[in-house]
Amino acid sequence: MLFPSGSMALVEGVYKANTVSDSYNHMLAETVRRTVEQALESDPDRIVSILEVGAGTGGTSQFVLEVLENYAARVRYVYTDISSTFLNHGEDRFGERFPFLEFETLNVEMSLRSQGFDLGQVDLVLASNVLHATEDVLVTLQHCKQLLRRGGLLVLNETTHKTDFATLTFGLTKGWWLAGDGFRIPGSPLLRANDWTAALQLRGFKESKVLTSEGVDDAAALFAVIVAESDGVFSSDERRPEPRRKPKVTQSAPVVIPTETVPQARIVDAASLKSKVIEELQGVFAQVLRIKIDRLIPTASFDSFGIDSLVVVTINQKLEAAFGVLPVTLLFEHQRLNELADWLIANQTPEQLVTFTGFPIESSARLAAQTRPPDTSPAAPVPPPGDDDALLRGIDSMNESELDALIAKLEKEVQLS
Fold it and tell me: What CATH number is attached to the domain comprising 55?
């Protein structure tokens, strides 16, 4: 409903050309600009590292990127989001104009190292109306702090009062209802400004500063920009991830087609077909997600690739070009490439599989025969010797030509004997 057919237009409109929202985005952007300026004054040769958590449609990003344009050669800006759809949107919108941008999938609730992020390397972590949409704000702030070097700044732009509009709009999203800690405004995932400062203090950030519109008290402000400095100390129970190993593929025995039936057929076993389907699926997913194919491990869950309901719409459209209409829940019910490949092989026609994979088989009938499981149904019972009734029933079922053939065969056997 919020993203019809994957479109960002409706949600962008919530923050775009909104006077109040724009004023706080300007406030955050100006905080970033001053911090970068001061850092480069003290060390003109350094590269200032900035990471934005949950950049989404780029509503806040635009304000920040524009004030950083003059520092393009001295800034590294990592635009992150949990959704690959938002990353692709951000890259299309900003990638060409701001060459200092990088785009990475990040779930701030999960282990950072397991997602490929080093700890203690970032000068500025930005987050605009996103950190409240997590289950435990203390865990989320801990992960933000792990990204920061000593003296690095966490800069938040957050809604700090519950409104019916926000609840009716963003209450449609899963993140709005994730909260499981004790810091939230009742009936919402939001925190008041003083609750943010309390949570930041518990996580060991130095004294934080709350910025609001001029003349508006912190407690009465609908929004707030909150700036907190890291003391560089954080606990981490994270271990470096084990190197990814290529999953083992169990080779099943090929079902051989009798050569006298199809003398020119190429014999291809079921495991090879599955490998080819997975390979093609990896190509589709890599194109949509804009990531390298070697990251798409067939046994890994789609969540680890940054796939959400918005990405699913695009992937379904790509697959339907080859297979026709598919169940809209397909990628939710089969959340690994190997599982999806199994479903396609079991449920799609041989012609569709040939079209999708480019399999070098002349006849789709041969493909069907090769991929069809062996017939394990019991054979028809053979009448035991001496069962005259069964023999008579068999003779009664014969037509005239079959009876003539049987009589001729019996006569020949009698003559031979």
Answer: 3.40.50.150
